[in-house]
Amino acid sequence: MKRIHQILLAFLIFPFVTLTAQSDGQGTYTLLIDAYDWGPAVNKIIVPKVESETPAVFGDYEVKVVRSKENVEMREGEAQGTRNVLYAYPSNADGDRSETGEFTTLVLMVAPNDPLSSPIKYYRGPNGRASNQWIDYELTVTHVPTGTTWDKEGKRMIPDLDIFDLTGTFSHKDIDLTYGSFKPKGSGSLPLIIWLHGGGEGGTDPGIPLIANKAVNYSSAEIQEIFKGAYVLAPQTPTFWMQSESGEYTRGNTNDIYNETLMALIKDYVSKNPGIDTDRIYIGGCSNGGYMSLKLLLNHPDYFAAGYISALAYHNEFISEAQLNSIKNIPIWFVHSKDDTTTVPEKTVVPLYERLVAAGAPNVHLSLYDHVTDLNGMYGGKAYHFPGHWSWIYSHANDADFDYDGNPVLIDSKPVTIMEWLAQQHK
Questions:
Q1: In angstroms, rounded to a whole number, what is the distance separating the alpha carbons of residues 33 and 15?
Q2: What is the model's pTM?
Q3: Which position among 162, 190, 199, 422 has the lowest Cβ density within 10 Å, counted as fewest Cβ atoms?
Q4: Are the CB atoms for 427 and 280 separated by under 8 Å?
Q5: pLDDT digits (tens, 9 = 90+) for 138-164
Q6: Cβ(253)–Cβ(244) below 8 Å
Q7: How far is the C-alpha of 232 from the C-alpha of 186, rounded, in Å?
Q8: CA proximity to 86, closest of 118, 108, 119, 111
Q9: How far is CA 339 from the centre of its chain?
Q10: Could you tell me the sign of the dihedral formed by the alpha carbons of 224, 227, 228, 230, in that order?
Q11: Do residues 204 and 129 make contact, with C-beta atoms less than 8 angstroms apart?
């Protein structure tokens, strides 16, 4: 009886309010996550529509978040707080705008320096290894005028990631790797783009290497159009690509434990996908993955059509003249930032590039940026500086378009971007 009285009272006070959100007893919302240059962010929430005869008003909604993970310490300002709602619009259950839709989509503010918008966190796990991992991300959404509240996540959508198959596993000589993959819509013989993640994306969830930095973009309509369709393969190491047998980092001075298994994985994937053009297999990665990309080129110089490597972690001093000559005819485009203090360019990419040029490499390029900046201009543009190590942003965004001397990279006298260049390389 008490519940009936509450419903009648609500109807008398708010005669034009539909009670769908309250009467279903669920209190559930749908979470939308998009990939950004700096990583994933929760940018939309979908809730059942409350007001049926008036447009949704973003100021009527309050969104609070609690970010947590068992045994993980959250710093002040990243554990809980209020998310800013920028806009609200009528939609269907998937967030598509619909004036007659039964739902309301709330658009939230996101920013690279706003931890409350991120559903992942870089932390040290039980194995002592720090990496980016999903955390518990709990929202309480309140429609203030009616007091209607949704506090349970009913569905999660990650459009950039949902198009990938994240179930790939591969074992070789007692080493297990996971991987994500994307199959293009095009037909015929199509290229394969391989992306190797950085040191912070190891683990057993292949979604992390694709979303923790915007590697999902290789499946975007823009880049897929450049290649007229391309397979995308993103292998994942359980620890880090540069792990030596001792468990410590190698920078090329000793062998790592993963390159043999990784190469076996790549060949296995290619054999199971006969639509892949074996003359157009491209290998690239950042930092740890940049190291491993170069390692595979050195070990298998006749297999890959080209390399695209950012924030190279392989130290030049450990590359012999014989190794250098084995790769000088492989097309390679390096991307790096001058202010990278993690993979210092003077120890890695700059001397290697100069040696390749001196050896007569006909198709090697280096886009060396002053800083890694905000490409979309929303957070300060060139005045906003990401950490200098994050030069992979320029690769994922297909922004790199100049060589070490500052001039455009040309194909047939036409300036090209890194992905336009890559698409033209054949073995």
A1: 35
A2: 0.92
A3: 162
A4: yes
A5: 999 999 999 999 999 999 999 999 999
A6: no
A7: 13
A8: 108
A9: 22
A10: negative
A11: no
